[in-house]
UniProtKB/TrEMBL annotation:
Keywords: Cell membrane, Membrane, Transmembrane, Transmembrane helix. It is found in: Cell membrane. It is a multi-pass membrane protein. The keyword Lipid biosynthesis does not apply. It comes from Rhodocytophaga rosea. GO terms for cellular component: plasma membrane. InterPro entries: Poly_Biosynth_Transport. This is Oligosaccharide flippase family protein. It holds the Pfam family Polysacc_synt_3. It comes from the Bacteria. The chain crosses the membrane at residues 20-39, 59-79, 99-117, 123-152, 173-197, 269-287, 299-320, 340-358, 370-388, 394-414.
Length: 431
């Protein structure tokens, strides 16, 4: 009976995960294909511009969207069935997003243009790339709110299909350039065009959920601003840390090194599939578990499963580097050692990210901010004694910088389980 029940549970989870992951695999696969074509078609200089541009637009998107998305989800989760109140929330969030976007764009765009220009892009070309990026950023920010509307109304299948078709359009246009011409500006314009098409679908799907006459709501506005103020410092820190290698090489290194770290970073796309399954299916089940031993068992099962997947890729990259680098093209065929280093850095970062997600779902995050000053102090020390202008140095810098985050998550996990087991014993004794 035990084996039968276990088999049924396993079969159920395989079906659920397979159904969700199949669309994710196709969409991420298309993104990987288009990304690899861009790497192979662009020169190192052009790909360095493309990498810098995407790094900065990702930063702007996260800085503008983070507090807005959290507040939309937390407030909207309570009122989404009331269309008038929900419309007020949407309109209020959209208005605040415009103000915040204007501030972030004014602050970040000069840095973007400077980094492009200092790494060899002509001034006119830097400006054109920036305009193309901002065009796509507009649609990306608008979509951020509209996707939350669909999620709150459980339109998950529609979101998945939309992402799939967006990836297909982008990949198809990139493939057409294989027979014509491609540079970083055209690649960015194609990405922005795909986002514009996605925006048309989203607008058609979400208009029925919005009452235009609702206007803004002062109470919602105050709540959103409070969440943004609370969230912004940590979001700014995470944005910088997530792209630390690009920042270091952009300031201290060469343009070709930016292209190399950007190309090697494409490996992380593989982990995005597992991350999507984890966030959408596995984490909610972990969060709802209330039996101490079962929770501990699930924790180690999730970590070991993810770690085994990551280690298999790491070992493969160490033993078969030429096969991995072949897909990037001849320009990057000499990066065997760097491939192993960045794979190790990616594995450690992703495993620590999973640990943080598991701790966060249980609310085990008290005093987690301690690792931020520790990490910054460590990085100051590393900047003094390491050569971060080289590709190896920048990758090692990023790898070592994750260690404080890893240590604090171990502490949070041990403390969280200790408290959880202790509280469970107290509840049993009271009964």
């Amino acid at each position: 009976m035990f084996f039968s029940a276990s088999t049924n549970r396993a079969y159920h989870w395989i079906k659920v995960i397979s159904k969700f992951a199949s669309v994710q695999i196709i969409a991420q696969g298309l993104n990987l294909i288009s990304g690899l074509f861009i790497i192979r078609l662009l020169s190192k200089d052009e790909y360095s511009y493309y990498t810098i541009a995407n790094t900065m637009v990702s930063m702007m998107n996260v800085l503008v969207s983070s507090g807005i998305s959290i507040s939309m989800t937390s407030i909207g989760g309570k009122i989404w069935k009331d269309q008038y109140k929900f419309s007020q929330l949407i309109i209020t969030a959209t208005q605040l997003r415009k103000y915040l976007a204007a501030i972030i764009i004014v602050a970040v765009v000069p840095v973007l243009i400077y980094m492009l220009y200092s790494n060899g892009a002509p001034s006119y070309y830097s400006i054109l790339i920036t305009i193309a990026l901002l065009w796509g950023l507009y649609y990306e920010l608008t979509a951020g709110i509209q996707i939350i509307i669909l999620r709150l109304h459980s339109e998950i299948a529609r979101i998945q299909n939309m992402e799939l078709w967006t990836s297909f359009i982008r990949t198809s246009l990139i493939l057409l350039c294989y027979f014509t011409y491609l540079n970083s500006l055209i690649a960015i314009l194609i990405g922005s065009l795909a986002l514009a098409i996605r925006q048309l679908w989203l607008s058609n799907w979400t208009n029925s959920y919005i009452t235009a006459e609702a206007g803004t709501n002062i109470e919602y506005q105050q709540d959103i601003i409070r969440i943004i103020k609370h969230q912004f410092p940590s979001t700014l820190y995470y944005c910088f840390q997530a792209q630390i290698m690009i920042w270091l090489i952009g300031v201290f290194g060469k343009a070709e090194n930016i292209a190399e770290v950007g190309a090697l970073g494409r490996i992380s796309v593989i982990y995005a599939i597992i991350g999507s399954v984890l966030n959408s299916i596995i984490l909610p089940k972990f969060a709802s578990c209330q039996e101490p031993r079962q929770l501990l068992q699930k924790y180690f099962q999730i970590i070991l499963l993810y770690l085994s997947f990551c280690l298999s890729l790491l070992i493969a990259s160490a033993f078969f580097p030429d096969q991995f680098l072949w897909v990037l093209g001849n320009k990057y065929a000499h990066l065997q050692k760097e491939l192993v280093l960045i794979s190790l850095s990616t594995v450690l970062s992703n495993v620590v990210g999973v640990m943080w997600s598991l701790n966060a779902t249980r609310g085990w995050v008290k005093n987690s901010w301690f690792y931020i000053p520790i990490t910054l102090l460590l990085q100051v020390f590393l900047l003094i004694y390491m050569d971060v202008s080289s590709l190896n140095g920048a990758i090692l810098f990023g790898l070592i910088s994750v260690i404080p985050y890893f240590c604090i998550n171990i502490f949070l996990t041990v403390k969280g389980f200790f408290t959880f087991f202790k509280d469970s014993i107290v509840k049993v004794e009271k009964v």
